[in-house]
Design goal:
- There is one protein chain.
- About 25% of the residues lie in helices and about 30% in strands.
- By secondary structure, the chain is α+β, with helices and mostly antiparallel strands.
- The protein has three domains: about 1-100, OB fold (Dihydrolipoamide Acetyltransferase, E2P), CATH 2.40.50; about 100-160, Irregular (Dihydrolipoamide Transferase), CATH 4.10.320; about 180-360, Chloramphenicol Acetyltransferase (2-Layer Sandwich).
- Strands 12, 15, 18, 19, 20, 21 and 22 form a seven-stranded mixed beta sheet that branches. Strands 3-6-8-1-9 form a five-stranded mixed beta sheet, with no helix packed on it. Strands 5-4-2-7 form a four-stranded antiparallel beta sheet, with no helix packed on it.
- Helix 1 runs parallel beside helix 2 (about 140-155), helix 4 crosses helix 5 (about 260-275) and helix 4 crosses helix 6.
- Belongs to the 2-oxoacid dehydrogenase family.
Length: about 375
């Protein structure tokens, strides 16, 4: 039998969730025919077959979370213990089976599981004894433990998957590695039209502010204590959907027109709703924008997503009274919150960036 294993999906991704199988056991498939769709921390990815043949068995079910190198499909025929080379989006890797210390030999009467799986079971309070493994030779997998964890807690336990799982991991990484500091200000919107496109104006202003204070448009490597400044401003837009939080990227925003930005936003939102965001739209961000005020809230402490060093948060528009030549006048205001990684940016750099951001937003549209 030949096994096709989950190939390397690139971008340092270690796992993927099976969203939908496109084939069934017994099916005849051709080279490059799509076998299944998986969701990673970056996007939905179609996985094609690297060979032509008959599928003997699907090695995982929809909803399972698999690590790179885990068996996906068993093909009929071929040599025993063979491994089929997987290829996705030009990235390929051959996975070979090796003996791993800690695995229990089949027929020993003991529950077979790798040390990492046993550690997970211990952390979740799952009793390994009696668990039926779904892996090769009855090996208990991480998914077997997670399913047992859900079953023993009823509706109180939920294993995070998809975008929500990716968000949880990203927030853990940020908490462990970023030194966050937040500063706030308000934008006087007297120069704005009543029908002003808030999100487009925010994106344009971020482009202006980053060009004037390039240190806020950077990636920071905490291990080597190096900072890389970027010429282009690529803004990740936080989009909250029923499937979780997605952050598609708009590239080179400082060089794009308002109409082009709006068209890009419309396409982005449509892709998020359809869960069809291309992988290339989830890569290469240098700064993030979260327009949480579209839902509620004036100020926040947005979370920096490393290796980026800055995130801009826009709150809910509100009215306030200002004095002009001693006369009280009502004006609309836009609250802004900027969080920056203090390991990479000084307080002065962040304050200058915020000042440029406010100035760009208060200026009449060109």
């Amino acid at each position: 039998m030949k096994f096709f294993k989950l190939p390397d999906l690139g971008e340092g991704l270690a796992e993927a969730e099976i969203v939908e199988w496109k084939v069934k056991a017994g099916a005849q498939v051709e080279v490059d025919q799509v076998l299944l769709s998986v969701e990673t921390a970056k996007a939905l990815v179609d996985v094609p077959s690297p060979v032509a043949g008959v599928i003997a068995r699907l090695c995982a079910a929809e909803g399972d979370i698999l690590h790179i190198g885990a068996p996906l499909v068993e093909f009929e025929g071929g040599e025993d213990d063979g491994t089929v080379v997987g290829k996705v989006l030009g990235s390929s890797q051959v996975f070979e089976d090796h003996f791993v210390a800690g695995a229990v030999a089949a027929g020993s009467g003991l529950t077979q599981a790798m040390p990492a799986v046993r550690r997970l079971a211990l952390q979740l309070g799952v009793d390994m004894n009696g668990l039926k493994g779904s892996g090769d030779g009855g090996l208990v997998t991480e998914m077997d433990v997670l399913q047992a964890f859900e079953a023993q807690g009823g509706s109180h336990n939920e294993v995070l998957k998809g975008a929500r799982r990716a968000m949880a991991k990203a927030m853990t990484l940020s908490h462990q590695s970023v030194v966050p500091v937040s500063i706030t200000d308000e934008v006087d919107l007297r120069a704005w039209r009543a029908d002003e496109d808030v999100t487009v104006r925010l994106i344009q202003a971020i482009g202006v502010a980053c060009r004037g204070e390039p240190s806020m448009n950077a990636w920071f490597d905490g291990d080597t204590l190096t900072r890389r400044l970027f010429d282009e401003v690529n803004v990740a837009i936080a989009v909250d959907s029923k499937h979780g939080l997605y952050v598609p990227v708009m590239e080179n925003v400082a060089q794009r027109t308002a109409a082009d930005l709006r068209a890009g936003l419309d396409r982005m939102i449509a892709d998020v709703k359809a869960r069809a965001v291309p992988r290339e739209m989830l890569q290469g961000a240098t700064i993030t924008l979260t327009n949480f005020g579209a839902i509620a809230g004036r100020y926040a402490s947005p979370i920096v997503s490393p290796p980026q060093v800055t995130i801009v948060g826009a709150g809910k528009l509100f009215e306030k009274v200002v004095f002009v030549h001693g006369e009280a006048r009502p004006v609309r205001a836009l609250p802004l919150s900027v969080t920056f990684d203090h390991r990479a940016c000084t307080g002065g750099e962040a304050a200058r960036f915020l000042r440029l951001l406010v100035d760009a937003l208060e200026a009449p549209e060109k």
